[in-house]
Amino acid sequence: MPERTDKEMQTMKTVEIRVPDIGDSENVEVIEVMVKEGDEIAKDQSIVLVESDKASMEIPSPESGKVRELKIKLGDKVSEGTLLLTLDVEDLPVSSVEQPKAGSEQNDHPAKAVSPALGRNGTKNIIECDTLVLGAGPGGYTAAFRAADLGQKVVIVERYPVLGGVCLNVGCIPSKALLHAAKVITEAEEMNEAGVSFSKPEIDPGKLNQWKQGVVDKLTGGLAALARARKIQILQGKGQFTGAYEMEVTGENENWSVRFKNAIIAAGSSAAKLPGFPYGHPALVDSTGALDLKKIPEKMLVIGGGIIGLEMACVYDALGAKVTIAEFSDGLIPAADRDVVQPLLERIRKRYEAIYTNTRVSRLEENGDRLTASFEGQGAPKESGQYDLVLVAVGRRPNGKLIGAEKAGVQVDERGFIPVNRQQQTNVPHIYAIGDICGEPMLAHKASYEGKIAAEVIAGQKAEYDAMTVPSVAYTDPEIAWMGLTEEEAEKKGIPVEKSVFPWNASGRNLTMGRRDGLTKLLWDKSSKRLLGAAIAGTGAGELLSETTLAFEMGADLEDIALTIHPHPSLSETVMFAAEIGLGTITDLYIPRKK
User: Fold this and answer.
1) Comparing C-alpha atoms, which of 6, 10, 16 is closest to residue 90?
2) Which residues pair with 475 in a beta bridge?
3) pLDDT at 348 exceeding the cut of 90
4) Looking at residue 377, what is its pLDDT?
């Protein structure tokens, strides 16, 4: 235990720091002790990280001072009132400080990061770093973590109180959690045909929301711990460039001026809006609003037949809503080949109330708690429809024009994208851009890949974007996944391709799962038989696609795939079977020889 000097004895007093009100959590485990005896800590600095079955949560210190004695250790169980440590603090006339509750304004999220070196005085604080990362989504946090691992002093600027960006908080992760719930419901329904019947599910939207949020909190809390382990400083606020080497960050209670040697822009994108719609009406939502299951609507309209719209349609259909899709183009998921989308289309035609393609929603009018939609276009219905919930899912727009990039001299195109080279550099060499903001496809895994490149180039390593493809997946039921060339792209580019398709109604594993829909398609060069593209429709297609993506990156041909022994019975066999069809060696189907 550290000794105090006579002078300190005269001006300091010892206080006990205990676990504050942490809601209904009891006997939660200490998974990280973030201070040690003798440390000088600031008010609101996190001192321990605890984890319940619902979430990870940081507990901050209510006062500044020097840690005198730790009373807990890693693995201990704590509850409200448990003594964490004793703290030597200045003996001021007014020394009683109320401990903040978890969820209060001072600590409104378990993963909220407040720099212990900075006060809440509304003044501008100056910070210097090697690398500044603007945005903490999958691309941003990956870039920051990699840069820190390579020896950089890193600052993350994130406007929201948690790391993870749209993907972890209001995108990929919560939507997949709800899609899992939807899958359980529909599989239970469909087992009726096999003689296994369940009663109608009772759905509690509030509890389902809590479970979904628990998944999110687990991941975002983990990210906060990873950032701390790397000694990355996180500033919560809105970042704006003020020059080529400086960014102003405006927080709720304080401002910072960050001076950097290098910057990585990972500011992402925002949901696109259609003009003239009554935004603000409770029945009109974007994807974020759709993920907040306040109640299950009786009738739902999804504007946009792309991946986001169809995934949310899949969730609400399983939960009991009557779903209508309105898509402006001539088909759903326009980026994928029509034959691959067909198994999904056939399934949802039987389940959804209506699917309109070549259709535009020309007007939305308020009608009490509901909205009345009018339609136009070749495939549009003549009559308007009334809906309890309308989801606008017509794509996303990059945030390039929202960050003051012009003050740093960074070029931003008319759509808001920031052009980059293969090292992820913008036209200003020490400023990089990754993820949605630097071009299509707007996918989290592309952003993470680019984030590592930018960090490694900054650290002086030889790195560049050399991926041959970015795989895409719609986590619908059935899933639709593709990579490399599509047939439509090959035709437009004049690239001759051969194709082989294995239908999943001949897959033993698929049949044992109660399904007959699905297909695996390979595209390949006729002379070399080298793989050029692949597409899969069916259960778990997103998982199966990785084999074909690796084969494509390695320059594999059909023999490489066909002569690799796959487990039986499995869905992965369908990739091998498709390759065998191309080679003419398949025995699980009879395909007459070409004359």
Assistant:
1) 10
2) none
3) yes
4) 96
Sequence-ordered list of residues with C-beta below 8 angstroms from that of 14, at least 6 positions apart, any chain: 68, 86, 87, 88, 89
For the chain, what is the domain count? 4
Tell me if 507 sits within 8 A of 574, measured CB to CB: yes
Residue with tokens 């493809």: 469
Domain final residue pick, 357, 373, 394:
394
Residues 451 and 503 in one domain: no
**DSSP per position, 78-98:** E-TT-EEEEEEEE--SS---P
How far, in Å, CA of 141 to CA of 133, rounded?
8
- What confidence tens digit (pLDDT) does each residue in 164-208 have? 999 999 999 999 999 999 999 999 999 999 999 999 999 999 999
Contact status, residue 102 vs residue 46, Cβ threshold 8 Å:
no
Which of the two residues, 489 and 595, has the higher pLDDT score?
489
Same domain, 55 and 204: no
**Are the CB atoms for 54 and 215 separated by under 8 Å?**
no
The pLDDT mean for the chain works out to 91
129, 207 Cβ separation under 8 angstroms: no
Sign of CA dihedral 574, 580, 581, 585: negative
pLDDT at 121: 44
- The number of beta carbons lying within 10 Å of the beta carbon of residue 377 is 16
* 34: containing domain: 12-90
Residue 182 CA to residue 434 CA, distance in Å, equals 33
> Residue 332 is part of a domain; what is its CATH number?
3.50.50.60
Query: Is residue 122's pLDDT more than 60?
Result: no
Active-site positions read 568
Model pTM above 0.85 = no
**Residue type at position 164:** G
Element (H, E) at 233: strand 233-236
